[in-house]
Every structure is written in structure tokens, then in C-alpha cells.
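queue> pop job 88
queue> type: inverse folding (structure -> sequence)
queue> payload:
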């Protein structure tokens, strides 16, 4: 009878080894900034919604991809220049940005040649020192016709040291 009572304790003692468990990826500390260097960013349009009955003023067909390359300077690693994350062909400035613990949330006010009105972009994603994954949503409120909402999947990776072209 005593052996039956001790069996659970013996099993517990055998299973509780003194070796510390290996850390999982989820327990690994998140990056606090991007690594300086050349970055390649790809944007793939996943959804386009016309917001009025006229043709979109911004041409971005669903499924289209663009890839850009940009240099992230050491001074910009904690807050990269807007061109790294903003839609290609837009001149954007940050309205707000949070970047820490492997998460990035940013809002941009953008301009594009030939368009007047408001163009807002929101980027949400996660990053490591050398990679980025996220989404962007660009919405227009133009003074003329052609308002659109464009969603895109963003992926990025550090490709090495900055190049002269970057």
C-alpha cells in the first residue's frame, strides 16, 4: 500500500530534471530596433476598394507587387525614414510611430504628385533586427473623384551593408 502512495512522488521526481529547459522563440527577447544596413521591402496589394463611383485615382491593382531597396542608417534604426515603410511613389511623414518589443505601428500623412486631399497610411507589423512583416492600409479623401482604400502585405529583410545606390 505504501508503494502505491509513493508512486506519484517517484514519477514526479523522475520527470523534474535539474536541466533548465531551452528557451522557445516566444521567450526570446524581441528586437528593439532594426539593424542598420540595406533593406529590401516588398509590398503586395491584397485588396482595393473604390470609395466612390469613379475610377481610382491611385493605380494599384490587386495582386500587384513592388520591391524597393533603402538604406537604414544607424541613426535611423530606432525610427526608420518613412520611405522604408510608406507606399512607393508617395512623399510621407510620420503622424505617429510606436516601435518596440518587436512591434511597429505607424501612421503617415502622404502626398502624391497630381493629387490633392488627404492620403493616410497605417502600417502595423512585427520585426526582428533583420526582418519585417506587416500590413499597410492606405485611404484617400481627395478633393476630386477617385477615392480608394488599398490594403497590402509588407515583407522586408536586411540584405547587407548599405550600397551606394541605396
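queue> result:
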Amino acid at each position: 500500500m505504501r508503494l502505491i502512495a509513493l508512486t506519484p512522488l517517484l514519477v514526479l521526481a523522475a520527470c523534474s530534471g535539474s536541466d533548465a529547459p531551452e528557451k522557445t522563440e516566444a521567450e526570446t527577447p524581441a528586437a528593439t530596433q532594426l539593424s542598420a544596413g540595406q533593406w529590401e521591402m516588398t509590398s503586395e496589394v491584397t485588396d482595393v476598394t473604390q470609395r466612390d463611383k469613379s475610377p481610382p485615382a491611385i493605380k494599384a491593382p490587386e495582386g500587384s507587387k513592388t520591391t524597393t531597396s533603402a538604406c537604414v542608417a544607424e541613426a535611423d534604426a530606432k525610427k526608420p525614414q518613412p520611405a522604408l515603410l510608406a507606399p512607393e511613389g508617395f512623399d510621407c511623414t510620420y503622424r505617429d510611430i510606436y516601435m518596440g518589443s518587436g512591434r511597429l505601428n505607424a501612421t503617415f500623412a502622404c502626398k502624391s504628385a497630381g493629387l490633392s486631399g488627404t492620403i493616410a497610411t497605417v502600417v502595423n507589423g512585427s520585426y526582428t533586427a533583420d526582418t519585417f512583416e506587416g500590413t499597410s492600409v492606405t485611404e484617400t479623401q481627395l478633393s476630386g473623384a477617385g477615392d480608394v482604400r488599398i490594403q497590402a502585405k509588407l515583407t522586408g529583410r536586411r540584405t547587407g551593408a548599405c550600397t551606394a545606390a541605396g
